[in-house]
Structures are given as C-alpha cells and as structure tokens.
Amino acid sequence: MKFGKVDHPELVDFTLPPTHKDTIEVLSKAEKKEKPSIYVGCAKWNRADLKGFYPRGTKDELEYYSRQFNCIELNATFYRQFPATQFEKWYHKTPDNFKFFPKLGQEISHWKRLAGVEEVVNTYLYNASNLQEKLGTIFLQLHANFGPKNFDRLHNFVESWPKEVPLAVECRHPEWFADEVISNDFYQLLESKAIANVLVDTAGRRDMMHMRLTNDEAFVRYVGANHPSDYERLDAWVTRLEEWIALGLSNIHFFIHQNLEKESPLLAAHFIKQLNTKLGTRLKVPNDDENSQMSLL
C-alpha cells in the first residue's frame, strides 16, 4: 500500500491525536456490551504479497489464512465485480467465526464517482450477500480527488444505502479535514446514518487521524512504514482502543497494511498479542505454534 508513504518515516511524529470530543458523546450513547467484538486482519491473502507467511505445501491460501486470522479486508472486490458463486465459495472455505470486509468496486467510487450507481451497487450487494453472516462492514474508499464539492453525491449515496447493511466511508481529499465546518457536516452525515468513519493511520497523511467515530465501530486501516516504529505505533493503538472500550466502543475492525505487505502478518501477530495481554481477549495469534515458519524470507 503506497498511499501516505514517505521516504523518512523516522522524521514523522506518530503520536496519536487526542480523541475527538464528539467521539466521546457518540460512544456514551452506544449500547453497552459485556465484551467488544474485535476483528483483526490483513488486506490480502495471496502468497505473492504475504511472502514467508504460508508453510511450504500450502495448497489453498484462503483456507490457511482464515485459520490464522478472523477477518480480511477484501481489497480484491475493488478491482472487479465478483459473481455470487465466488462469494459463496469463499463462504464455504472459511471457519464459522470468520468475516469479510469487502471494498466497494472502483466503478462505484472512482469511475462513476457515486453518480448513477444504483444498478451496480445492487448487483454488488446481491453477490456479496452470499457471504451471509460472514459479511462484515462494507467499505467505501473515495478517490483522493473526491473533495467536498461532491458532498451532494456522497449525501445522496448515503441516503440511499440500505440501513441493514453496515457501511464505512473513507474520504481522502485533504479539504474534508482542513475546514472544521466541512468536517462537521461530513461527520454529522455519517453519524445520522450510523455509518462508520474510517480512520487511516499512515505516515504521510496525519490529517486522516481525525479520531472522530460516528457510530460504535472503530474501522481502522493501519499502514506500517516498514520501520521499527511500526510496533510502537501499534502499542499506542492498543492503549487507545482500551480507552474507547471503557467509553462504550463495541466493535473494533482493525486492518494492518504495510508499504511492503510481507511484514503485515508479523505486525498483526504483535498487535493481537498486545490486545490479548492488555484487554484480556483470546484472539488467535497467527502462526503461534511450534511448527510456525513465518518469517520475512
């Protein structure tokens, strides 16, 4: 993942910004659960990206991946429309507690820019519905040049989105975050529809660390810089999530990327271990067995 990449990550201040005051209010209104629902995963499962993750002789990458992680940020659906039969195959290959968080296709977000997309969205939703209970929050990532001047398009899209299907939105244009009035209009739109506001933790775009949740879901896309500081950054996230859980956060969906994706499983394993230690969760640690060969080779 090249978005937000910088040449010298050691010069970046990765300190997490304070929690937005309105996040505290949103979480105070959320329905309290005894234990939060936590899903942690990578963006891809293919061997070409996750080098060193799969044991020799692994025949089915998704089948193996889904026994190590409890979710995947499904980026493949951004590049083409998969048929219902493919989603059905993915459903049957994965364990009962596994979830997919698929990205909406580029035809919707980038080519048509949310205009005249009813038919393609309906097709997408019909096909993805074959994941059944394994379908997590669907993820809309807008083009970096999709600015606030397109607010009406986003508003109309959100208004027409089916309420029963969880949605998360990631805006990348800097103007969404540079003006407080624009930001608040955007946040209020998502909050009014109980849609998640995506947090992106990447070196070159610290403005996307707005720390503004718009429902009881923290949908976090973490992008490591292939630098030793990546681990400290994840430790800070564990502390912040612990604080948000105390405030009422119920759903954590945390996806780990890297500029070079081969290190993503290692970072994820570290993050999960820290969650288990600090939050008392019992998430499986990827490749945490005596036969594990996970490495950067």
TrEMBL record:
Superkingdom of origin organism: Bacteria
SUPFAM superfamilies on file: TM1631-like
Record PANTHER family: UNCHARACTERIZED PROTEIN YECE (PTHR30348), UPF0759 PROTEIN YECE (PTHR30348:SF9)
Listed name of the protein: DUF72 domain-containing protein
